[in-house]
Specification:
The chain has helices spanning 3-22, 26-58, 73-79, 105-116, 122-132, 139-142, 148-161, 163-167, 229-254, 272-278, 295-302, 319-324, 371-374; strands at 82-90, 93-100, 144-145, 169-171, 177-185, 202-209, 212-221, 285-288, 314-317, 338-341, 347-350, 353-357, 366-369, 375-390, 395-408, 414-419. It is of the alpha+beta class and 423 residues long.
Length: 423
């Protein structure tokens, strides 16, 4: 099973688990999470077995790829594997390409030392170069590949800060991705035996996800780089998640999309709020008076979401909107509609919809959305990082880079409440 296939399967299973849990099917959701764990273990086992086998067959004698960390024998055995591919064509000649598994602990150690400016052993330097100076790319044009364990932590932290980005469907396809989505469709009909079945009418639209470049620089003092490696990695991981996450969260909800004629902004994902506001007559948007959100406003907006998207429907709003608007709404019996769901760890719900605090939403905006079915994103290129040293200032710039795009799949999976114009 290849990495792309694994990531796509895992994301699909995660989306299914979320839908089950959001629908109240906790036991089934837990079973699905166990299946995800089993998939992770299977992929890890296959990757290690294949890498170890090929390393035994092809690694030249004299280079001990098992000895890549300062840890004991047990730590070294866990990580130092290489994949060797014979006969890579380049400039009309044949080359041998050696690529270290970037998900290994060994590469994580070599990468962290490089980021901290610490010297690498000969074996660590060889391992580092195998990943970052392979024939397919160079550090000069793509940055260094971030270890899998670090990128996984970055994506996880981004999802916790910006739940809408976390909930949307994601694919990992290199290049431009074109998706077909249904536009209109005629319903089935009843017939008697003598009547010929009418032809159905189906119309389709296509959605193209290109590549929007996302980059953010993080500056670290040389003194800070002297911290222990166990502290440095979580620090960099957290800073990257905060900075990259802000852009991804904004992009999935309020991104401007591709610039049109006469527009000068840079290409961004098309945010769901932006897409809803661009629709003719904005049928999925309702407005309310600031400070006077009422029960009728909530149910009016909820009615705009097509019933087929009810399962997995959540509310996304920032902290100010949740606690100054939603928290004050009462139903027809005078009871608050924002209630704690004790069975789900105390998370709040409104009319059965999970309420998720998302800082990418503006004040007054209340988005009701089935994110996993109503919005899609493609991660064209995983996060990489390039560093630049500033000797006089004694600081290091870490520039993180990724290529991502996203767009709304269907407006019927969303409804937006916002302040009336001018408020």
């Amino acid at each position: 099973m290849g990495r792309k296939e694994y990531l796509e399967k895992r994301q699909a299973m995660l989306n299914e688990a979320k839908q089950l849990i959001n629908s109240g099917k906790i036991d089934e959701g837990n079973k699905k999470m166990e299946e995800i764990k089993a998939l992770d273990e299977r992929f890890e086992a296959e990757a290690k077995a294949n890498a170890a086998l090929e390393a035994m067959e092809h690694v030249p004698q004299g280079m001990n790829l098992q000895n890549l960390t300062d840890a004991g024998a047990e730590g070294r055995t866990a990580g130092g594997t290489a994949r060797v591919t014979e006969g890579v064509a380049m400039n009309g000649q044949q080359h041998t390409e050696e690529i270290l598994d970037y998900s290994s602990e060994a590469y994580k150690t070599a990468w962290a030392k490089s980021m901290m400016g610490k010297p690498l052993s000969a074996e660590e330097d060889a391992a580092y170069k195998m990943v970052n100076e392979a024939f397919t790319h160079t550090t000069g044009n793509t940055g260094t590949v971030i270890p899998k364990v670090v990128t996984a932590g970055i994506w996880q932290e981004i999802g916790e800060i910006y739940p809408y980005w976390n909930d949307i469907s994601k694919t990992y396809v290199n290049g431009i991705l074109t998706m077909i989505k249904a536009d209109t469709s005629t319903d089935a009909a009843w017939y008697d035996e003598a009547t010929k079945t009418d032809d159905g009418k189906e119309t389709f639209e296509t959605m193209t996800l290109n590549g929007c470049e996302l980059s953010r620089a993080i500056t670290v003092s040389w003194k800070l780089k002297e911290m222990a490696m166990e502290e440095f990695l979580p620090y960099i991981q957290k800073r990257m998640a905060e900075k990259m996450g802000a852009a991804l969260g904004y992009g999935s909800t309020h991104g401007k999309g591709q610039p049109g004629a006469g527009e000068t902004f840079k290409a961004e994902p098309m945010g769901v709020v932006t897409a809803l506001e661009k629709e003719i007559n904005t049928p999925q948007i309702a407005e309310y008076a600031k400070g006077a959100l009422g029960y009728t406003d909530i149910i009016t907006a909820r009615a705009k979401v097509k019933s087929g998207y009810a399962g997995g429907l959540s509310i996304y709003a920032n902290s100010n909107t949740i606690w100054t608007e939603l928290a004050n709404v009462k139903d027809q019996n005078g009871r608050p509609i924002l209630i704690a769901d004790v069975a789900n760890g105390g998370a709040f719900k409104v009319l059965g919809m999970a309420v998720k605090e998302d800082d990418s939403m503006l004040d007054g905006e209340i988005l009701m959305s089935n994110a996993s079915r109503g919005y899609a994103a493609n991660i064209n290129k995983e996060i990489s990082v390039t560093l630049e040293e500033h000797v006089k200032d004694r600081i290091t710039d870490y520039c993180a880079y990724a290529i991502v795009d996203g767009a709304m799949v269907t407006s019927k999976a969303h409804a937006l409440l916002k302040y009336k114009a001018g408020e």
